[in-house]
Amino acid sequence: MGKSLTLILGGVRSGKSDYAQKMLEEKGGPVLFVATATVGDAEMAQRIRAHQAGRPANWVTLEVSRHVGAAIRKNDFAGNILLDCLTLLASNVMMEFPEPVDEKAYSRAVQEEIDELLEAYHAQEGEWVIVSNEVGLGVVPAFEMGRYYRDALGRANQQIAAAADRVIFMVAGIPMIVK
User: What pLDDT band is residue 42 in, cutting at 50, 70 and 90?
Assistant: First the structure.
């Protein structure tokens, strides 16, 4: 089994998750689906159920909202890994901070998540696919928390992209190869 890392970026509803899933379905073999979403309301619960129903039955799911890299290493999975998504991981980190959010502490916490994730990637074989939103193309957020989030996620995306073998940008369901 080889080793590679693919980052799939795009806007909301651009087809990132579906594309990532199809990539690993076509590759075959065991897949660990790492889900970072948490149920915050009825709509999110429905979205999570829809994602679960659309996954192949033989895929293993690991639901983890924080310390994702450590959880993957502890799981000791032999196969391909799909992490969906980095966007929610950065959000989960922010939700643990009291308001007003300390930007430096938040950025450090997101950086620790990325460091742990890359350590987990380097510690095992298999194809990794990480899904994340590109949030830097839109309007500048009106509130500090939104700007802190955008900045931290942008830095995280850059770090994962630098480590990745491939970067794919999704637009309207169409993959564009960036790297």
Answer: confident
